[in-house]
Amino acid sequence: MNSTDPKGLLDELARLRARARDDRHGYWAPFLLFAALIVGAVPFYLRPECPPGCSWSSNGMPELWHWLHPTGQGMRIGGYFPSLAQDFYWLAALAVGFLATVWWYRWRAGRVGVETSTRLYAQVTLFVLALPLLGVPVLSELFFNRLGWPLALAAVVVAVTAATLLSKRKLRTAVAILLLILVAHFLTVIPAGQLLVIVVGVLGLAWVERSTLCTVFAWLFTATVALVVVAPIWFYDWPPLPAALYDSADLVLPAAVLAIGGISGLVAAWARRKVSP
Amino acid sequence: MTEHPTAGIDETVHQRHRLGILTIAAEAKRVEFGYLKSTLELTAGNLSRHITVLEEAGLLEVEKGYDGKRPKTWVSITNKGREALAAEMAALRALLDRHDRG
Questions:
Q1: Are the CB atoms for A20 and B24 separated by under 8 Å?
Q2: Nearest by CB to B92, which of A10, A23, A117?
Q3: Of A48, A76, A91, A227, whose CB is crowded by the most CB atoms within 10 A?
Q4: Which residue of chain B comes nearest to A110, CA vs CA?
Q5: Residue A1 within any structural domain of the chain
Q6: Over 60: is that where the pLDDT of A142 sits?
Q7: Which DSSP state fits B2?
Q8: How many domains does chain B have?
Q9: ipTM above 0.90, yes or no
């Protein structure tokens, strides 16, 4: 650092900040990992062997499935095939993805010398991982089913807002918590709704990484997940495509966006190292 | 009459290497001693002295540990350090504005 005048000093500090930010970027690894984990779910969503006229219903599913999906599950592109194996896969995959991401940032800090905080990522991911397992089933059983959803929803909004303000936090914290509760509810209803956990995690990473490329791909991924969540309602069985493509499209498309984001981040990191070793 | 921007300058923070340390530390959860040394192009002794000054002022926290058998020193900025850095940056920008206005 050589400058002594205010402008030169501010410019040098901006350069230092940008360099530290670039050096700590490591989002490409979680992006690639989650892309692989999403693709790994495809076999659990392929339609089973089915003679003409057969159908699937949640009525015959075990009690655990009903606990995990207290208000049932919606349609998806390839049709409706409720399966506990899907839930088990996602539970394991999301836990592995979460732990690996936290470990990755700590390991990378040891090598690079500058550490990204994963606190916000860990907080939001753990919240949307735990809530669908315990919070949504318990709230549905004890609260929403007995009071009716309009009254129960109003009570939840008031309770969260009051608790947030009493703990002297900002109102936006209450809004964020309510949005996460909504995500946790959708997660139990939407087939492959676990993609929403990854959306929350990826947006959390974009927030802590403060990288333009990471933010762009995080929002592209969010838009793609929103599209595949809405798509079965509007485009069910249209256009006519092979069944396997329908069965995998709502997983492969978001996975492709994350994979391209991860590869782009890796190339950007490699290019930076070439310019300033 | 408005106060001159130099009144907002804190002597502990204003030293440019210390400003550099705080700027980098503010960008991360924690920063390793070796990273600061190479990025700021300082000698170990010089960097160590600046870190001690900032730590004694309550602007930095220092954590010593090991990576395998290699000792490592990690530095993280405190809330007081963030406030001091923000105040210093604001004072520098105000000084620049005043200079530009002539």
A1: yes
A2: A10
A3: A76
A4: B67
A5: no
A6: yes
A7: P
A8: 1
A9: no
